[in-house]
Structure to design on (768 residues):
């Protein structure tokens, strides 16, 4: 179409960083060896794989042998649930992967507040003496709302103490999918206080279907995929060396530039939000005003059909999402927006704008102008 | 070291074909979109993904919506077992992934003959009225022995008829991991007669951790990894578009060149086998003389320490395996060699030489010379 594309959907997918691609490339071609083979070039591949896991572990303040490399966040989440099982507690704004995994077990789904925040007291009220797992994402993928994870973690520690005192030996663990937070928030496991952590490379300019599940030492994992015994028997299958090396590069870059990048995105997002709200005063911004990912802007235009708007914007080169990019969500109202109590008319007019590496002050401002123009055109069309 | 490398371990890993790499590349960078996103560039990625699945399906004579894309053969095998469950029958020469998956269920492990072939009558003798799954690889990854899969399939069809006549409604299915056969053998599902088929891209010059599980329509699969509902709800997680596009290219190339390549490898392998056996008459060639993968040569030198030999060969640039490249196998005697009744002294002196794209008449002949020299040196050293 010759239109310059402005990508505002970094929460759905990110392009591979060129440096990540360069790091991966040798493992597709010259360094293609099976890391379990016995000769020196394969042993070198094994060392490179281990070094990559070391880099990833360091980025979250963990030990490499506490990581299980998996093929995506969804697999990691499923592994966490399958390992811990029992009664599980999660929230109604969680990603489909968490909700679907929870439904395989005895579960309680608690409600978030109207900003998409899950209060610690609400979670803990749902915890029973036989609850084994609490799973709360670090940040919500639709609203960008950041959860009070440290607070929840300290409540879980208290519960553990109470159980110890009461002679209840049922373990209780806190799992978090931090895929949407890495590169913008601190994901150091001790500081977060979690027992299990899922992180995905695909959201941080790394390869898709590449993730890990971290489990604190002492947390017993149970493999879902058995066979050759790779990943300490917890995830069998020939290792995806190229992808894990790419993940290491991606998370290293994300951590190195985190402070700068989150400040940059925060500024850009606030400018965009100000621009849109000033021109379209009936717009509703959702998510927590303060505890929100720097690059996230969830904005609703009551009475407008967001799906129609997405196509109008696309024709002008602006790529945005109506809600979560998950396949299951297609053509249905977002469960997250229902959970935070948005009326149907507001929910159906929602855009999720997520900034990232491809965002510049110029293209973000230009996207703002185009969104305003298309919104006004759409309003005129329907006589709003 | 400056030594030219001669790779004789194609069964463990294969380098990405340059054409596969070129096909994948755009999906890492410009075409990075999440295929579930609603705008045109993402819809194009979805179409490319679907087209890739179409190509893969065509290569095995199946329909695209009968495929579930997974992150590796091990995952596919686990999905097949988890879906069908019940009493399962497999053989003692199967890959660790199959044996480990079988052990999760009520199982019977039958014995192969001394050539690594599993006789249909032996399998069917183990089938009980409640047997639901038989899993036999198309070709054994260590010996290269090709199984009588069509014959087994027709016995399974007979069993089905018998059950129908007896009013037994328990379904019985035949699953095969054909990862080691693609590119050398016909893997058309109707001609094989299987109900479930696993194929991996990593053994055919495609990307690692990329595979499918095919299931005939009517075979009900049960997801192990739940979430966003991708792959018709049977394997959730954002699709690995680059890898699946690469797999399509790899399997297309494998099928196009299958006849030529398998004849070429067959000739090369026979020359190498002749060269080694002529110079080292005490050598024992294992695997079926006729029903054997074209590129496979499993050869044992009684009394020799194969691990030591692997290092000596590596120092001269020749890369070979002692047995299966699976992690679980490390430092232990191959269960396959025990299964076919090789004595410990023969088994411990075994090399697996597997030819492929990197093999030429020149480097294969040169490898043969080096193996002979190193064997003779080793024999002298230990006074054999």
């Amino acid at each position: 179409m010759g239109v310059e594309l402005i990508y505002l959907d970094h929460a759905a997918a990110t392009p591979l960083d060129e440096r990540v691609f360069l790091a991966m490339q040798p493992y597709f071609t010259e360094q293609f060896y099976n890391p379990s083979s016995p000769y020196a070039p394969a042993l070198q591949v094994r060392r490179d794989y281990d070094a990559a896991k070391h880099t990833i572990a360091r980025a979250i303040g963990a030990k490499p042998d506490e990581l299980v490399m998996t093929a995506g966040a969804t697999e990691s989440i499923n592994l966490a649930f399958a390992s811990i099982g029992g009664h599980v507690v999660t929230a109604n704004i969680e990603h489909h992967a968490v909700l679907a995994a929870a439904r395989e077990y005895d579960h309680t789904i608690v409600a978030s507040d109207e900003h998409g925040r899950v209060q610690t007291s609400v979670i803990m009220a749902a915890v029973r003496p036989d609850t084994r797992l609490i799973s709360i994402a670090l940040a919500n993928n639709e609203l960008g709302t950041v959860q009070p994870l440290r607070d929840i973690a300290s409540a879980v520690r208290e519960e553990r103490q109470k159980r110890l005192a009461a002679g209840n030996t049922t373990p209780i663990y806190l799992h978090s999918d931090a895929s949407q937070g890495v590169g913008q928030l601190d994901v150091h496991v001790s500081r977060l206080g979690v027992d299990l952590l899922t992180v995905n490379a695909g959201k941080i300019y790394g390869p898709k279907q590449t993730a890990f599940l971290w489990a604190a030492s002492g947390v017993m994992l149970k493999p879902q995929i058995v066979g050759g015994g790779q990943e300490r028997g917890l995830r069998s299958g020939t290792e995806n060396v190229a992808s894990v090396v790419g993940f290491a590069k991606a998370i290293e870059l994300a951590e190195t530039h985190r402070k700068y990048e989150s400040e940059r995105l925060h500024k850009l997002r606030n400018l965009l939000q100000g621009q849109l709200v000033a021109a379209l005063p009936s717009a509703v911004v959702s998510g927590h005003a303060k505890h929100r990912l720097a690059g996230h802007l969830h904005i609703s235009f009551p009475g407008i059909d967001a799906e129609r708007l997405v196509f109008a914007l696309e024709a002008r080169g602006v790529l945005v999402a109506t809600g979560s990019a998950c396949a299951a969500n297609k053509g249905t109202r977002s469960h997250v927006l229902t959970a935070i109590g948005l009326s149907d008319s507001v929910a159906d007019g929602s855009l999720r704008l997520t900034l990232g590496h491809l965002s510049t002050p110029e293209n973000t401002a230009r996207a703002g102008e185009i969104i305003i123009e298309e919104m006004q055109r759409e309003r005129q069309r329907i006589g709003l």
